[in-house]
Amino acid sequence: MHHDYPSDWDERRKRVYRRDNYACGNCGVRGGPRGTHQLEAHHIVPLAKGGTNDIENLRTLCYDCHTAIHNDSAYAPTRTDSRGSDGDLEELGPYSFLGAIVFSIMFVLTILVEMTALFWVGIVAIVVGVIADVCLEEKETGPGVTVERD
Question: Where would I find the HNH nuclease domain in this sequence (predicted)?
């Protein structure tokens, strides 16, 4: 165990898990006695930046989210705070906010790609329809015969 942790660290982290209802405060997966994910206690303000081991400075995270946050990853899964209220940016952390921005950009780009594909499908359908119409006219009237339309 790291030398900056108090002797009652195990009890503190278990109290944090209970307070947070054994759910990751970042993505919401369940751990503990009835869950399937490994939970960890995360310092909201890191010890290296003046944070404490007080319960109020700890939150429950699953292993994946905790690892992603400490590896400066913007790709940790995110959602609202597990206690049922919308978390503010400070509570959820900068990586959760950045992950939400990345997700939003990816969502918009996906929609744009799908709209572009539909546009080209529509153009191809119109061109095929015109070609088919011309071919049918030539079949009915013979090649090279011009038919005036109303």
Answer: 11-67
Architecture of domain 9-101: Orthogonal Bundle (1.10)
pTM assigned to the model: 0.49
Is the pLDDT confidence value at 145 over 70? no
Judge contact between 42 and 30, C-beta under 8 A: no
The radius of gyration of the chain from alpha carbons, rounded to an integer in Å, stands at 29
Helix H or strand E encompassing 108: helix 94-141
Closest CA to 65 of 34, 35, 30: 30
With beta carbons less than 8 A apart as the criterion, state whether 94 and 100 touch.
Answer: no
Q: 17: Cβ–Cβ under 8 A, 6 or more apart, which residues?
A: 31, 32, 39, 41, 60
What are the structural domain ranges in the chain? 9-101
Half-sphere exposure of 107 (CA within 13 A, CB side): 6
- State the residue for tokens 């009915």: 140
Query: Tokens in use for 84?
Result: 């049922």
pLDDT tens sequence across 23-81? 998 888 999 888 889 999 999 888 888 889 999 999 999 998 888 888 875 555 555 44
Distance (Å, whole) CA 14 – CA 9: 9
